[in-house]
Write a structure and sequence with these properties.
mainly alpha; Na+/H+ antiporter like fold
Amino acid sequence: MIDVLQGFFVIWVVILTGLLTAHFGILGEQAQRGLSRIAFLLAMPCLMFGLVSRTDINRLFHTNILVSVLAVVISAGLYFLISLRWKRTLSARIIGMYGASYQNANNMGVPIAAYVLGDTSWVAPLLLLQLLILQPLGLTVLDARKAKRDGKPVSWARNLTLPLRNPLTVASLLGLIVNLAGWKVPQLLMDPIELIAGMAVPSMLLAFGIALRLSPLPKLVDLAEVGVISVLKLLVMPISALLLAHFVFRLDPVVTLAVTVMAGLPTAQNVFIFAMRYEQSVRLARDVVTVTSVASVPCLMGVVALARVLTGG
């Protein structure tokens, strides 16, 4: 458990560094945007290419993927059932379901995997699941509903090809091709890729710290719904993954801990972007992202402790 605490300590020190630089005016919103763009457009694609191209193919297509899918279904499904009493529209429910199940695999997944699990490759299957399946499915429905409201034709092709316009997906797919083909990328080419990839974790954590200081506090307009979604995301989803991995699929302690930690990641900022794009539950999405981001680390520490006790790891 000490190594897990050390991992979280490293993460929070870097986040706190970003927060303090923003507080004292050393870095601001422009730096936050720059760090985020460096991470998203350069460092993360290089990191994902390196990870996927060299990760054991069995990890990318392992039972842990099925556990992750079932955890998503449980959390999102529970929100859908609970939301029936709130009489939300289908589009609003999709945003809520995303809030309860769409993990922040980019900004928080990579550093947590690096310092808590000691292996960033656990993020690769999760990103592929979200970018290739969850995102296109949800956005296709949202696009269809918005097009109907606006009296415009549905852009099915746009959403079906959405993953191919995401640098993370493209880099992951290229890495997968290299892995499946058994090719070895020349070290002369891999060295600069790995050097750029090394910027991913610190730039994401610093940007997150700056955002915590500069972003306005959530107004929690829909307190009950924000609370329900946050509990589903931070507690129900990882505990569901833990129970499925340990009792149903009998995965080994290392894999069980990995899928549990990945399931306990906070709601991704992508959900807020989706809400803005389709003009649905914008304030709810903003508040859920903020609350789960702040509360995720202490919740994860508790879930990790439970996983260690249960698996004897």
